[in-house]
Amino acid sequence: MSITIVGLGPGDPELITRRAWRVLSESREVYLRTARHPGIEALPANTYRNFDDWYDRAADFDSLYQQIAAEIVRLGHRPDGVVYAVPGHPLVGEMTVTLILRLAKEENIPVTIVDGLSFIEPTLAALGLDALDGLQLQDAVDVARLHHPQLNPDLPAILAQVYSRTVASDVKLTLANQYPDEHPVILIHGAGTPQEELEHVALHELDHSPKISHLTSLYVPPLPRAGSFERFQETIAHLRAPEGCPWDRKQTHQSLREYLIEEAYEVLEALDNDDPDALREELGDLLLQIVLHSQIAVEGGEFHMADVIEHVNSKMIARHPHVWGDVKVSGAEEVVANWDQIKREQKQNGDDRKSILDGVPKALPALAQAYSYQARAARVGFDWERIEDVAAKLHEEIKELEATDDPEERRRELGDVLFSVVNIGRWYEIDPEAALRETNRKFVWRFQYIEDHAGRDLKELTLEEMDTLWNAAKATESSSTGAA
Fold it and tell me: Quick one: which of 189, 48, 44 has its CA closest to 122?
């Protein structure tokens, strides 16, 4: 009772190890995962059986490999055991071997691994790469299933088993979420065989190659400029190190508070201006604050960046059971309802929040804070039934403001008016904070137009003259942007 798993190398018979050749020569019967591998015909004379016909009947590779593994383990119970041969190295990209090792351990069957040269070594030789120079290895099929590649773009990567143009297409779409369309990549066909070939293409052309086969791998060079999250963390950690920057080293969570708020508002300004270049820059500045706070936490023994990401990642998965579970939703409103229900369940399971309004940041701008409070209350039915009722409430609050002469009461009534205005915006699905920022920006432009066209000190202009220039600014603005 035993299982011997032999690595057949990448395909050139000369690359089969002496030990593998000896085991194959001395075996009465050998099971091949597939006979579709270069050099099979050159193996020592013997009885070879394969599972190629199983591929045609299988629903998918996962179930096929489980069936093959179960069969090899069954054969391993025989007195003479079984010899099972696979392409390359048994522990490089061979799911059947992984499954066999697990099942054999459960059934106490001894397993012997006979090493073989994998596709990696000839691929490294073909590309002239050092594997220890940060090389990343992944299965192309796994990458194809993702939406964003789990690769560090500052380091080279090899993706194995790009066995079809369909897989290549899915890999391309995943990689395109991190690499530009014109990023140069290399398809390696038949590494370690006499037919070895390197094909240089741009990423967007990846799935156009007619040469793609079951012996194709992909090399993805690093981006020309450092752009990984890990590299940025190293930069910030270096700044905080003893040999780093004195200013960065003296910062604390509290000393950075003003910068965090400032950078957040600069991101908002870039969004208001619909300026992608500014948004890219400001998001970087905001990220700087996040990484700085995390590095300070690491040094203080509080938490690591991985803890930050793990928490929010787990929360996003848990609160989207319609994506990562079997919950069905009809639209965005039901998603929000599910989100609130999950949050309430979390509160019952240990969250210390007592009110549905807890969690709205106290430091939010007042308009944004009011919007959040109203939206949360509305989710549990505390809301007006019609927009007309909301408008009537606004008019009521304005009348109450106009009716009072007491300064303190007037301040309170003005707050009620603003709160009602926010409610109007919520009913029209308008962010009041963004709407007011837009109006502020419009006011600044028009007023600066008056300053630029006044011809003299503004204090010397009459209100009628300033109003004329204001209307001229509006006309100029309308002609250039179509705004009213």
Answer: 189
Domain housing 287: 229-300
Which residue, 94, 83, 95, is CA-closest to 32? 83
Kindly report the pTM of this predicted structure.
Answer: 0.74
87, 16 in Cβ contact below 8 A?
Answer: no
- Amino acid sitting at position 269: E
Q: How far is CA 215 from CA 36, 100, 206, 301, in A?
A: 10, 23, 15, 48
Rounded distance, CA 212 to CA 88, Å?
18
Please state, in angstroms and as integers, the Cα–Cα distance from residue 401 to each residue in 180, 393, 408, 418, following that order.
57, 12, 11, 11
Strand segments, DSSP code E, in 3-150 are 3-7, 29-32, 47-50, 82-86, 111-114, 136-139
- The tokens describing 266, both together, are 């600069």
> What's the total number of domains in the chain?
5
Judge whether 321 lies within some domain: no
Cβ neighbourhood burial of 58 (10 Å; 0-12, 13-18, 19+): middle
- Residue 199 bridge partners (DSSP): 187
Mind listing the pLDDT tens digit for each residue in 367-410?
Answer: 888 988 898 888 888 899 999 999 999 999 999 999 999 999 99
Secondary structure of the chain: what % helix, strand, coil (to 5)? 55, 10, 35
pLDDT tens, 8-30?
998 888 899 999 999 999 998 99
In a domain, 332, yes or no: no
Q: Which residues on adjacent β-strands are paired with residue 184?
A: 202
